[in-house]
Amino acid sequence: MEEFKSRFDVAALAESMADTIRADAEAWENNTLGSFLSGLSGWLEDMHGYYEARGEVGRCEDAPGNVVRCRWCAS
Asked: Which pTM does this prediction carry?
């Protein structure tokens, strides 16, 4: 997993993902916008478990107002 330090890092990842799906869509499990967004939604709903299992956060629900705060909510 990459570390994002700015919105430009996230934008570069999104563009890289777009390039790879254009080059070989069949290599992607979620190769349509609808299936990708459903997968993203599922991951966002469950991401607290990923970080909790790694010992990196407390409860994500304790970090109101910031969707991406999960990884850092323990600090």
From this structure: 0.58
CB 21 within 8 A of CB 28: yes
User: Angle at the Cα of 9 (from 68 to 60), degrees rounded to 5?
Assistant: 10
The 8-class DSSP code of residue 31 comes to -
Q: Which two tokens stand for residue 14?
A: 């999104």
CB atoms < 10 A from the CB of 73, how many?
A: 18
Task: List the domain boundaries for the chain.
Answer: 31-75
| Contact (Cβ atoms closer than 8 angstroms) between residue 56 and residue 74 | yes
* Residue-wise pLDDT tens digits, 7-38: 898 899 999 999 999 999 999 999 999 999 99
